[in-house]
Design goal:
Elements: E1 2-5, E2 16-19, E3 29-38, H1 41-48, E4 65-73, E5 85-89, E6 103-107, E7 111-113, H2 120-124, H3 128-140, E8 148-151, H4 157-168, E9 172-177, H5 180-188, E10 193-196, H6 206-209, E11 215-220, H7 223-233, E12 234-242, H8 254-258, E13 262-265, H9 273-289, E14 296-301, H10 305-314, E15 320-324
Parallel strand pairs: 8-9, 8-11, 9-10, 11-12, 12-13, 14-15
Antiparallel strand pairs: 1-2, 3-4, 3-6, 3-15, 4-5, 5-7
Helix pairs in contact: 3-4, 3-9
InterPro entries: ADH-like_C (IPR013149), ADH-like_N (IPR013154), ER (IPR020843), GroES-like_sf (IPR011032), NAD(P)-bd_dom_sf (IPR036291), Quin_OxRdtase/zeta-crystal_CS (IPR002364), Zinc-ADH_QOR/CCCR (IPR051603)
Protein name: NADPH:quinone reductase
Subunit structure: Homotetramer.
């Protein structure tokens, strides 16, 4: 089968389009014929080597997320059968052969049903972004219906899904984006208010927009830029979940004292297995019940995965980037 494989760590050029042996599922494992695979920034860090959460043995086929049809099942698998439409979210799977390939084998617990209303490219946009959004909102922030959440950088893969999940449980949602296209995507996802973060002092209108009720939860995609300012608008006992960060900052911890606020770090890789599995069950249900409709951004052919790795870091996200493996 065709796959993207790397035999050394390094730049995007180490990703090679090659023929590899088709993987075979063992006990409690599933093989999926993939139509699309998700592309995540974490995969570029893994490619470079030295990533704190995961360093694979080489040669290695990248990719944790994808969508397609169950192709074969191993002994002991009863929840899924060949022919089922599924999405793959294999970040914490014990075995994962990589989704940048025509077929992938992983634990059955990492594979969930995809309803007919969701396309395969949308299914590939789940995985890491959806589990990150769920973990940030429900496991870390413990958001409640009726609370107000501010989602910085809401037009990216994680942000758009976080907007939808928060609205699904009855939260008031404010999102930010930096372009007119991004703002429109956040609106389409159901945000009550969308602010343009490329405009100076864009947060100054928050008090009046929230009727001076303030923000209960903030999902912070760029903590090194926004964290200190977040406290201006955060309610007493509010929670800030750091989902993304690209540098350091000079920060006064006294800001947390005045409001008894919590700053919570988050990484999908740290999720206990039972919480990770819980998030996938919830995502499957939200897809079935209309609470989640992933928004796909750029679609790039599998053989051009190296280009995808460059663009996902250098370009501003507008929806979720995916690789096309086989036309569905």
């Amino acid at each position: 089968m065709k796959a993207i494989q790397m035999s050394s760590f390094g730049g995007a050029e180490v990703l090679k389009y090659v023929d590899v042996e088709e993987p075979v599922p063992n006990e409690n494992e599933v093989r999926v014929k993939l139509y699309y695979a998700g592309v995540n920034p974490a995969e570029t860090y893994i490619r470079q080597g030295g990533y704190a959460f995961f360093e694979p043995e080489l040669p290695y086929i990248p990719g944790f997320d994808g969508a397609g049809i169950v192709d074969a099942i191993g002994p002991g698998v009863t929840r899924l059968k060949p022919g089922d439409r599924v999405f793959v979210a294999s970040t914490l799977a014990r075995r994962k052969t990589g989704t940048y390939a025509e077929k992938v084998v992983c634990d059955v617990d990492a594979v969930y049903l995809l309803p007919e209303s969701i396309s395969f490219e949308q299914g590939a946009a789940l995985g890491i972004p959806a589990t990150a959004a769920y973990r940030a909102l429900f496991h870390r922030a413990r958001i409640k219906p009726g609370e107000t959440v501010l989602i910085h950088g809401a037009s990216g893969g994680v942000g758009l899904l976080a907007v939808q999940l928060a609205k699904y449980i009855g939260a008031n949602v404010i999102g930010t984006a930096g372009t007119e296209e991004g703002i429109e995507l956040v609106k389409q996802s159901g945000a009550d208010i969308v602010l343009n973060h490329s405009v100076a002092n864009y947060l100054d209108t928050l008090p009046s927009l929230t009727h001076f009720k303030g923000i209960d939860v903030i999902l912070e995609m760029l903590a090194n830029v926004n964290l200190e300012q977040d406290f201006t608008y955060l309610n007493k006992f509010g929670r800030i979940v750091v989902v993304g960060n690209r540098g350091s900052l000079d920060f006064n911890p006294r800001l947390t004292m005045a409001k008894e606020a919590d700053i919570l770090g988050m990484a999908v890789w740290n999720a206990p297995v039972h919480e990770y599995n819980e998030s996938l069950v919830a995502i499957e249900a939200a897809l079935k019940n209309g609470g989640l409709k992933p928004i796909v951004g750029k679609i790039i052919p599998l053989k051009e995965a190296s280009r995808a790795h460059i663009e996902i870091i250098e370009s501003k996200a507008k929806g979720k980037m995916v690789l096309e493996i086989t036309k569905s």
